[in-house]
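Trying the structure run again after the queue cleared.
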Amino acid sequence: MKFLSAATGDKWVDTTPDPAKGPAGEQESASHLQKLQQLVTDILLSENLVVLAGLGSSLSVNAVGKPRTAPTMDDLWKGAEAIGGAGFGALKTQVNYKTPGGGDNIEVLLSQCHISEMLNPSAEVKNFIEKTEALTVDKCRFVKKDTNLDVHCSFLRKIAKRSIRKPRVRLFSTNYDLCFETAARLIRFVVVDGFSHTQPQEFDGTHFTYDFVRRESEREAPDYIANVIHLYKLHGSVDWEIRDGQVVKAENPAKPLIIYPRITKFELSYDQPYLELMSRFQSALRLPNTGVLVIGFGFNDAHIAQPLMAAISANIHLKGIIVDPAAENSKKSDLQTIEKLIKAGDWRLALAATSFESFVPIVPDLASETEEEQHRKRMSSARP
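Done. Tokens:
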């Protein structure tokens, strides 16, 4: 993988050995990898750790050479084409859809469909919207009992094993799926996601201020337990729904509460419960001594990218690394701005051109497994 930081000057350097350079190349790449790992370590040791995970983190479940499990935006486009069938071209014309410069875009298409539906209601367009949104939900319900979430499990172990004297890691995700929640359950981590622990589980932002402690009769004071993460799903989740005016968790709801892919994301993010989640995201980025790890997020959502870029500009105590396979030579203006800052000597920032599944193995493991975790792993492997 390649990365860029103030420590590398104005050059992208590669952590993968170049066979043509022989032993000298191996030594050079090892030095680069050490620098990258030190940057990541500094972020993980920050007083306040913020992680922003996007679509790229979910795509790690797709096995090479096999049908994709987690959908890409291109998969959603192809699904919409199948729904439109022979009349797909006519529908695009009807809603005045024009292919953007970067290629066909499902968000732009659905946005045009909604605009057309408001101005000139049509049964065909309404039906297409409903079926395409249902398809989106169905494809994002890909986490099953046999889904391989080893990368997510490893990632959570590495970012959440923090001193209990520090604030809990805040993991913000734009994904609708249940990868992180399921991975946390598999490794017996505790997730604080804003929902109550009564049935039905109802959303209330106050729950983010609660914590978990262990009380024992021989101890006078409660003891904070380890391995707790705060999870904020900025675009909703496939297991959320509105019931009697309240956001609750439900198994496979017919109409999940999510922000569907369209350009109204900005406006919708200021409705509840998204307003609560976005306000906590913005507040977290402004805290002193904050480390930010952005991984799998493509900077396509302005309502998320803008607060992040504003924090980079205003919070001198913020340090962060952005992990994106297309980070080098990216055409995204925000990534270009970050690259310019780094080349100008901004020691706070770094860019890594790699994927979620390739990055996680090189993240330093700051704490070894406890005896309790080792026991649970042995018991799990021994079960039939």
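The mean pLDDT is 90. Worth checking whether this holds up in the mutant runs.
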